[in-house]
Design a protein that fits this description.
Blueprint (H helix, E strand, L loop, with lengths): L6 H13 L2 H8 L3 H15 L4 E2 L6 E2 L1 H25 L5 E8 L6 H12 L3 E8 L1 H9 L5 E6 L6 E13 L11 E6 L5 H10 L4 E7 L2 H9 L5 E4 L8 E2 L11 E8 L7 H12 L4
Parallel strand pairs: 3-4, 3-5, 7-8
Antiparallel strand pairs: 1-2, 5-11, 6-9, 6-10, 6-11
Helix pairs in contact: 1-2, 1-3, 1-4, 2-3, 5-9
């Protein structure tokens, strides 16, 4: 008869890996350090391999441990999902998802709908803000999952997609032809300095025609054909369109859409939410 793996021990293994040590994992699991250590030892004995390299000060996975980690995450996720579906004992609580306002559409409504179907008792609080603030909230433990738009990815994050930056304005508008070029940006938009530098390099004079705290206010200026703006391609809201400038405005390159998931929640609801996000962005 095939041997069976202990899901409780697997949960401790994942928690230790995500938390970076037995002490922090024990706190997250509401167990004693000795209990977590015993579960890890029992799992290693059952498999006949060492999962953790204990020669250094921190937690490092052995090659068998690295192989097991992916299986463990999937097994725990399926276990939790099956219990939620069949017993109605879904997690009750909240997951906080942070997303830059310019990439909420089109993926995030689909993500929220799918997550609600799989985790009906979990509430998702959506924080729509700029990347710098989202990363600050994430670092303070106030967001469980965040998406960012940035040139690089920090440790612990993963890049889901590289997307082009495009000039946008009013449908059929002429603001893009004016010189100096009228710009509209949120105060903390991560693309703002990059756009200004590109215009300076191209020798195109510009002026900040509209500044605001929120993207809604910026959209009003664009719809009125008072200024132009820059967005991630495909994220244009209604009444705003990509400007057919034919090379009159500089190419702005690409940005990365990155995903960060708080540890050690990667095998619970936050991890399930991250999996759906990956799927919506075409990452399997």
């Amino acid at each position: 008869m095939p041997r069976q793996m202990d899901l409780t021990a697997l949960r401790s293994f994942v928690a230790v890996t995500d938390a970076g040590g037995v002490t922090r994992a024990a706190g997250f699991l509401n167990l004693t350090q000795s209990a977590v250590s015993m579960q890890l030892k029992r799992l290693e004995d059952a498999l006949g391999v060492d999962l953790l390299d204990r020669s250094g000060r921190g937690v490092a996975l052995t090659p068998p441990g690295e192989q097991l980690l992916g299986y463990a995450r999937r097994m725990l996720h399926l276990n939790d999902e099956a219990l939620a579906r069949l017993t109605g004992a879904a997690f009750e609580g909240e997951v906080v998802l942070g997303v830059p306002s310019d990439i909420v559409y089109p993926a995030i409504p689909r993500v929220l709908r799918r997550f609600a179907q799989d985790w009906p008792k979990m509430r998702v609080t959506l924080v729509s803000s700029y990347t710098r603030r989202l990363k600050r909230l994430y670092g303070q433990g106030e967001c469980d999952v965040i998406l960012t738009t940035e040139d690089e990815v920090d440790a612990g994050g993963e890049t889901l997609r590289q997307m082009a930056l495009v000039w946008v304005g009013a449908p059929g508008g002429n603001a893009w032809k004016a010189r100096p070029l009228p710009l509209a940006f949120e105060y903390n938009c991560i693309f703002r300095v990059q756009v200004q530098a590109a215009l300076d390099a191209a020798g195109i004079p510009w002026v900040m025609a509209a500044e605001a705290e929120t993207s809604r206010s910026i959209e009003a200026s664009l719809s009125a054909d008072l200024a132009v703006h820059v967005l991630v391609e495909g994220a244009e809201p209604r009444d705003i369109q990509r400007i057919p400038h034919g090379g009159a405005l500089p190419d702005l390159g690409h940005t990365q859409v990155n995903l960060y998931v708080a540890e050690p929640g990667r095998s619970g609801p936050a991890g399930a939410l991250a999996t759906i996000i990956r799927q919506e962005y075409g990452v399997r």
